[in-house]
Amino acid sequence: MSSSYHIIGDQDTVLGYRFAGVTGDAVSTPEEARAAFAHAIRENKPGVLLITEAVEEMIPEEVTAHRKSVTPPFLATVPDIWGARNKRKSLAALIGEAVGIKIVDSGG
After folding, report:
1. Per-position pLDDT tens, the chain of length 108
2. Residue 79 vs residues 5, 28, 47, 56: alpha-carbon distances, Å
3. Which of 5, 30, 43, 78 could be a cystine partner for 58, CB 3.0 to 4.6 Å?
4. Burial class (CB in 10 A: 0-12, 13-18, 19+), 24
């Protein structure tokens, strides 16, 4: 990590942070996430390592172990560019807002 901030996440989120001068690794699989995370914490430099919620879900054991170790870098979980996972709207809700039609499952 050459800057004081580094992010690991999906390609779009990492690109957004790069516009703000933050270095990053774009990952799409647990294996890529695990490798990028290991590399980022191996340097043990002061700073902040940002990971998206999706990355945290991909490698929960590694994230928990690093948090318990209390060693640099400081770890913070951030939403991806689509927002916080627990606050995301369903596709039906988004369509309803866009066109004013409520989609109902007929169950049959």
Report:
1. 445 899 999 999 999 899 889 999 999 999 999 999 999 998 777 799 999 999 999 999 999 999 998 889 999 999 887 666 665 555 566 566 666 666 566 665
2. 16, 15, 19, 10
3. 30
4. buried
In the chain the domains, ranked by start, together with CATH numbers, are 5-99 (3.40.50.10580)
Three-state SS for 12?
helix
Tokens of residue 49, six digits: 């390592």
**13-18 contact pairs (CB < 8 A, 24+):** 13/52, 13/80, 13/81, 16/81, 17/50
User: Residue 16 carries which DSSP code?
Assistant: H
**If you write DSSP's letter for every residue of 27-69 in order, what string do you get?**
--SHHHHHHHHHHHHHT--SSEEEEEHHHHHH-HHHHHHHHHH
